[in-house]
Amino acid sequence: MNDTCILWFRKDLRLDDNPALIEAAKHERIIPLFIFDRNLEEYNKIGEASHWWLEKSLISLSEDLNQKLNILEGDSLEIISNIIKEEKIKHVYWNRCYEPDRIAADTFLKKEITKLNVFAKSFNSSLLWEPWKIKNKSGNFYKVFTPFFKKGCLQTDQPRIPCKKPKELFFLKLFKEDNIYQFKFQKSKNKWYAKFEKIWNVSEAAAKNIFNNFLENGASDYNVGRNFPSKNSVSKISAYLHWGQISPFRVWHEAKNRMSGSHKETFLSELGWREFSYHLLYHFPKINKQNLKEQFNKLDWNVSNELLLKWKKGKTGFPIVDAGMRELWKTGYMHNRLRMITASFLVKNLLIHWKEGEKWFWDCLLDADLANNSASWQWVAGTGSDAAPFFRIFNPITQGQKFDKDALYIRKYLPEIAKLPNKFIFTPWLADKEILSDANITLGLDYPYPIIDYISSRKKALDAFKKISN
DNA sequence: TGAAATGTTGGGGCG
DNA sequence: ACGCCCCAACATTTC
To answer: How far is the CA of A266 from the C1' of C8 (A)?
Structure first.
């Protein structure tokens, strides 16, 4: 008797702690499947950096599956239905995703293949708490983080203990190479992504290593060190978490066991923010398109491609901002402190709509994640649920002086001003001619003058905000 | 997980 | 010894 099932990989590209795999392993043979489905926004609008990561992930996952991963491009329902018919499949398993269009597509697909007399089952591999399970006393979903996390999450079921990869597995490959999804970057001569190759190792094993390295080296200083971008005190697991190369359940329990005190509390609450983002996405499906606080629809945003472009390129003339934007461009990653500084600069000092920033980050970040990216931009912009107040405007000079005191981070990403002394490296335009020439800098040529006056830009933002507050 | 403006306090210099 | 001013340091308020 033919006992073959389909295991549909999506954002769970791992073998460890994979509930759908555990279920699939109860069958004799598994057809591991990945579908690049352009009907879904996450593939149709996939960012360049994310696309690179995905390809690396699939190559690596296939290796872990003895080169048996079936990678296809096309309509998910059509592909799965065909395999069901040709291989006489009776069981299909996958782990859930939470993007609104994915939820709709999955619901429809489940209904359709059930009609073919197939048993379809989905599991949870990527959220510690299902978004529909966390409710406040009056039965509504939470809109404020602290009660969401402390009462909603921590006082209900603890995240389950992660499960191990099953021992006996038999994978089946159905398609020849020439039928599969064509890797874009493998063929492309685009050099932009080439630098990622040297920095990031994309695999389940690498995810485990990088997290272990954090636990051993960064975790004991996390609560303080995480604010300083020149230190190695953050985990850098975000992209792995997004694609599921590491399980949030694994991360949660490891952190609980191996971290301590305030470091542990803070790290776990950061995982809580990730849950909160998904919670918001689930209950506000338009979170990437609309202000959650509707009064911001009236705000008179600045439309300037010129300023936006300078921000994207890291040529604003404010070194801490530019260093952050260069880190993003060079590495596909940006330290959290810099995400706040650069985002605040775009939205408040340039008064450009957060959606522009959201789009740029979506394209450049290896960890681009619909829920986290949208919720975080709305948080910085002050337009979100339980967001930072709009008037919390980061000073693009003092943030550098506070969190990159010795300018190690600035010098790393802005070599053109590296020779400036610490006293002027946060404000090159205040340095006199001799100091600039000693550092081989001609302002306006080697490094830009500030593109805005930060004092008046701050006032402008507050005025614009005042107008919509009445 | 701000920053600036404004208010308060207290020590020291000095007539 | 006293009042006055200055100002740093800290606290509070405001956006």
So the answer is: 35
Q: Could you give the CA distance from residue A167 to residue A100 in angstroms, rounded to a whole number?
A: 35
Which of chain B's bases lie under 7 Å from a protein CB?
A: 1-4
Enumerate the β-bridge partners of residue A72. A35
- Express each pLDDT in A399-434 by its tens digit: 999 999 999 999 999 999 999 999 999 999 999 999
What CATH architecture is A4-124? Answer: 3-Layer(aba) Sandwich (3.40)
Those residues with Cβ within 8 angstroms of residue A15's Cβ, 6 or more apart along the chain or in another chain: A21, A64, A65, A165, A204
The token pair at A292 is 């959650």
CATH architecture designation of domain A127-162+204-283: Alpha Horseshoe (1.25)
Phi, psi of A421 (to 5 degrees): -70, 155
A399 nearest nucleotide via C1' and CA: B2
How many Cβ atoms sit within 10 Å of the Cβ of residue A448?
A: 18
The answer to whether A462 CB is within 7 Å of strand C is yes
| Global confidence as pTM | 0.96
Domain boundaries for CATH 3.40.50.620 within chain A? 4-124
In CATH, what class is A294-469? Answer: mainly alpha
**Tally of CA atoms within 13 A in the half-sphere of A319 that contains its CB:** 35
Residues of chain A with CATH 1.10.579.10: 294-469
A8 a catalytic residue? no
Answer yes or no: are the C-beta atoms of A388 and A379 closer than 8 Å: yes
